[in-house]
Every structure is written in structure tokens, then in C-alpha cells.
Amino acid sequence: MPSNQSIRKRILDRVRGRFFTLGFTKVTMDEMAHDLGVSKKTIYKHFSSKDELLRELVKLKMDEAQSGIERISNQNRLSFVEKLKEAYTFAGLQVSEIGQPFLRDLERNAPEIWKEFEERRNRTVLKALRNLLEEGVKKGAFKSEINSQLLLLIYTTLIQRIMNPETLSQLPLTPPQALASIREIFFEGALTDKARLQFHACQTKV
């Protein structure tokens, strides 16, 4: 007999695609129950409300993002440029799962959960990416006139505007292909000549 934890996980895994693509207000509990092949009563047994389901889904997504970024950041065997490539590739692919309708929905209709999401993203994922950029500045991988905070803002804005289901559906590219193009164009101008050569060497390994 499946445990409560496995049933909760099944529900979260099943609804995440619809929530992240359509926005959570567009998906009814009836639709979720039908999609899962269970009754609404079963869903409510494991999640007291749609808001609790949403909060747990956001927490799950942030747990995945945080653990992935920390794993890459702690890989001492990687050179800085290899670490940079892996971290920004991972972050971009994480973002590509979430559509703008979900983010707008979250900000407008679940402001408390949106605030939790923003605070944790700033405290963990964005902080780790910022630390990585600052490490690059100290190691001379970036041009001395580059401001790491501005660099992070530009990159995350590009990723959020392009790496989402709506925009990607209009491009003849897969998410990894789109991300590779953004990375190459973006870092081509920011890296020093030596680091750029290392970056291109990394690209050939993809």
C-alpha cells in the first residue's frame, strides 16, 4: 500500500506541469482529481487546500534548485569556468520549466507564497550565482570593469524572458540549444581572452 509520502509526491509530480505552464488558478481541483484518477477527497486528505498544494510545489522546486546549485558550487574538481558553465546551465533549465502565467499568478493571487519564493530565491540560488561571479572577478576571469551584480541582473533577466515555455515555443530550438546560445553570446563579451578560450573548450564538451 503506497505511503502518504509517496501519494503526496505523486500528486505534486502530476500537477507541477499544469501549474507551471498554465498558472495555478487556471487548474481546478476537479481537473486535478480527474487527471490523477482519484477523488477530490483523496487530494484534500493529503493537502488541506489548494494553497497548501501550491506552497509545497514551490518549496519542492526551490529545494531542487538550491541543492543543484550547491552541488555544482562545491565541486572543487571543476575549474572556475567549468563551474560557471554548469551552474548557469542548471539555473537556466530550472527557469525554463516555469511559465510567465504561473509567476504572474503567484504574485497576483498568492502574494504570501510569492514573497516566500522571492526571499528564498534571493537567499540561495541568486546568492550562489552572485558568489560565483564574484569569484570570477577575483580570479581575473572577467574583465576588470565588469560589475558582478549588474552581470547577474542582466543574465537572470535574459533567462527569465527567454527560457520560459511561451517564448521557447516560438523558437526553432530546444531549451538546451536556446540556453547554449544565450550563454555563448552573453559570456563572450564579459570574459577575458584566457577565460573565453576555456569557455569555448567547455562548449565542445556539451
In short:
The chain is mainly alpha-helical.
**Can you tell me the CATH class?**
Mainly Alpha
Structural class estimated from helices and strands? mainly alpha
Output mean pLDDT: 86
How many beta-strand elements?
A: 0
Flag low-confidence runs: none
The end-to-end span amounts to 42 Å
Q: Can you give a write-up of this model?
A:
There is one protein chain. With 206 residues, this protein is mainly alpha-helical. Helices cover 77% and strands 0% of the residues. The protein has one domain (4-203): Tetracycline Repressor, domain 2, CATH 1.10.357. The protein is built from twelve helices and no strands. α4 packs parallel to α8 (125-138), α7 (111-123) packs parallel to α8 and α9 (148-162) packs antiparallel against α11 (175-190).
Map the helices and strands.
Elements: H1 4-22, H2 29-36, H3 40-46, H4 50-73, H5 80-96, H6 100-109, H7 111-123, H8 125-138, H9 148-162, H10 165-168, H11 175-190, H12 193-203
Helix pairs in contact: 1-6, 4-5, 4-7, 4-8, 5-8, 5-11, 6-7, 7-8, 8-9, 9-11, 11-12
Keywords:
about 210 residues; mainly alpha; Tetracycline Repressor, domain 2; about 75% helix; elongated
